[in-house]
Amino acid sequence: MTKERWPRAASSESEAKAGPVTDRQRIDDIDVLRGMALCGVLLSNLVEIFRVPRRASYHVPGSGRIDDLVDAIMATAFQGGTITLTFSMVFGLGMAISSERVLASGASAYRFLAQKQLVLLVIGVLHGFFLWSGDILTLYALIGLTILPFLRCSPRVLLAVAFLMAIVFCLPIYPQPPSLGPDDVAHALRVYGGGTWSEVNAQRCRELLIQWRTGSLRWSPAVWMAFCLGTALWRSGILHAPERYLRVLQAIALSGALSLMVIVLMHVGYLPDWRASASRPVVRFLYLGAFLGLALSYGSTILLLLRRPFWRPWLLRLAPLGQMTLTNYLMQSIVFGFVFYGYGLGQYGKWPSAISIVFGLFVYLLQVLFSTVWLRHFRFGPAEWLWRSLSYGKIPALRRK
């Protein structure tokens, strides 16, 4: 390993021998993965955080058996930890791809990527304070800055670092977020459901500071691990030639059933309480492994379906959404904030899970349509164009010729 440049994931000769997958197809595959991951983020955030008080077992009055089923599915198959790791691995993929592209242009990858993460940090802070307290961009930007030197490492080193971060995540050293009592729940329902913008924003800022002190700190090693795994996957060449690794992808996809079973057993209480101090490190490691296994299974399944002539044209409809991930992520906060908070429609704490899922899927489909139409006329999404402009220090052309 030299210090002058970062090595490419695969040479042009090896890529030529890999099979019929072209550069455009590889990027399309990753855009589809981004689009699918964004769907999980939307549904998880909508059901667990936007519509009801955070960290509280609050059931909307009038919820029925269908809502109980939706809650059970969201708590297992779409667990917040699984979605976080999936989205984080895709983000790590993007960083690895960006580093190669910058190197190909002869620029300094470290300096450019650092600028990108600093701009993303500003966007994340503004998003958290003025739109939504569950912002993930701030954490991604900070971890993205610290992981830059490791992008030069081999896949084996990246896997070793990921394993180390998994151990750090399982250590019983992190402060627990405060639980919400009946008065806290009532206050959140009153402020978010009927408060003015200033009242909602004050509550949001308080929750954001708690999130940074507890949730973000506790999850940062796991996100670090996912970044390393995403980078290792790109550097290993699997995504350069998925056809050569079909059996590996099939094995990973099938292993998701085991991961899901572990999550279900933990959720219904057949395994030890993962919050208990005596068993917490071991059980947290098992829990993290189940999250990771399910996230990898989802990604492998998508890659396998993309190899199928019937599924590929349908899944490629999500590629424009993946190209505009930042724009659509921010747009979700704007739309959901208007629907649920008091300065908008004030539906906070009023929608059962099933209605929220239907609404979330409707918003997701609208975003797919919006992204497709937008990219027919423009080269980047609005937020991606702003991010790119501030990172490069110059304004790129937005409209297509």
TrEMBL record:
Q: Where is this region: Disordered?
A: 1-20
Q: At the top level of its lineage, which domain of life is listed?
A: Bacteria
Give the residue spans that cross the bilayer: 73-98, 118-145, 157-174, 222-241, 248-270, 285-306, 326-345, 351-375
Q: Which UniProt keywords apply?
A: Membrane, Transmembrane, Transmembrane helix
Q: Look up the coiled coil feature and give its residue ranges.
A: none
> Where in the numbering of this chain does the DUF418 domain appear?
233-394
Q: Which Pfam families match?
A: DUF418
InterPro entries on file:
Bact_Transport_Assoc, DUF418
UniProt-recorded name of the protein: DUF418 domain-containing protein
